[in-house]
Amino acid sequence: MSDSGEFDLIANYFTHRWPSRDDVVLGIGDDAAILTPAENSQLVIATDTMVADVHFDQQTPARAIGHKIAAVNLSDLAAMGAEPAWLSLALTLPKVDEEWLNGFSHGLREICEYYDCQLIGGDTTKGPLSVTVTAHGFVPADHALRRDQAKPGDWIYVTGTLGDAGLALAAQQQRVQISDAHYRRVLERLYFPTPRVAIGQSLRDIASSAIDVSDGLLADLRHILKASNVGARLAVDELPLSMALTESVNEEQAIQFALTSGDDYELCFTVPESKRGVFDTLMSRHPAKPTCIGRLTNEPHKIRLEHDGERWQGQLEQHGYEHFRTA
C-alpha cells in the first residue's frame, strides 16, 4: 500500500462524519493523538485483535466485523465499570476493497456514535486481513471493577442470555439444524454483540468482581475464581437461555452451549449478600435484569455444577475457547 493510498484510505473511510469529543485535543492526522484525561479518574485500556479465518470467515459481513471489533473492547471496559471514550485502530488489508471498507467503517462508526467514542488514530498496513482496536475509558479513581475482590458467599450473576453466539456458529458449521427464524436471531448475537456498558458502570460500588464472557462462562468464571482464590457452585437449571436455544437443541446441549460457548460478551459478576438489596433495587430499573446463577464457595478454583440442587450429570465436550490449546 503506497503512502498516498494509505492516507487516502484514512481520509475517505475514517475521518469524515465520525463522532468527536471535547477531550480530544488532536486526533487523526498527526504522529500521535493528544487527549485530556478526566479529572479524578483513572484510565482503563483494553486491546483485542480479530484475524481472518480465526475470528471470522468470508461469510461475515464487513459491517459486522467493524461493529464487533469495537464491541469486544467495549465489553472489556464494561467489565471494569468504565465509561468508553477513545478508540485506536490498526487495520491490515490484503488490498483496498472499497465495498468492504465501506461496510467495515460503517459498522465501526455506528457503535462509536452510540457509545460516544472517538476514533483517535492507529495504523493501516498491507498484509493478511486482521483488525486490532484499543479502547480507552475512564473510571472514578479506585472504583474500577476487578477480578480479585470476590469472597465466599457472594452471589454469581450474568446479564442477558448465554449460548446464542455458540449456537449460531454451530449452525454455520452445520453441526446443528435450527429454524431460519432462530438462526437469524442468534446470528445477530454472533455478529453484533451488545457490550453491557451501562450495567457495568452501575455495578462499581456493588459488585465484588466482574468479567465479560468472551471465551465461555466456565472459562471466564475460572479467572475470577483464580484471582480471588474462591470456588463456585452453579445451578445449570438457572442459566438464562433464549427461546432460540431451548427450541433448537435438547436441555443438555443447551446447557453445554451456555457454559462453554464463546462470543456472548455478557457480564458475569459477583455481589456480596450485604449489597444484594441495593443491587435488586438498582436492577429493577433495567429492562433486562441480570440472572442469579449460583454462589461462591470456600473451595478454591473448584466449580460444582448442580441441577435442582443435585450434582449435574451432564458431560461437557469442552470448557471454553482458548488460543494455542494443544490437542
TrEMBL record:
Enzymatic reactions: thiamine phosphate + ATP = thiamine diphosphate + ADP
Binding positions (Mg(2+) 1): T47, D48, D123
Binding residues annotated for substrate, in chain numbering: H55, D263, Y321
One GO MF term: magnesium ion binding
SUPFAM superfamilies tied to this protein: PurM C-terminal domain-like, PurM N-terminal domain-like
Xref: Gene3D superfamilies: PurM-like C-terminal domain, PurM-like, N-terminal domain
Residue positions binding Mg(2+) 3: D31, D76, D212
InterPro entries on file: PurM-like_C_dom, PurM-like_C_sf, PurM-like_N, PurM-like_N_sf, ThiL-like
Class of this enzyme: transferase
Keywords: ATP-binding, Kinase, Magnesium, Metal-binding, Nucleotide-binding, Thiamine biosynthesis, Transferase
Residue stretches in coiled coil: none
Binding, ATP: G122, D123, R147, S214
Top-level lineage group: Bacteria
Binding-site list for Mg(2+) 2: D48, D76
Additional note from the record: Reaction mechanism of ThiL seems to utilize a direct, inline transfer of the gamma-phosphate of ATP to TMP rather than a phosphorylated enzyme intermediate.
Function: Catalyzes the ATP-dependent phosphorylation of thiamine-monophosphate (TMP) to form thiamine-pyrophosphate (TPP), the active form of vitamin B1.
Name the record gives this protein: Thiamine-monophosphate kinase
Name of encoding gene: thiL
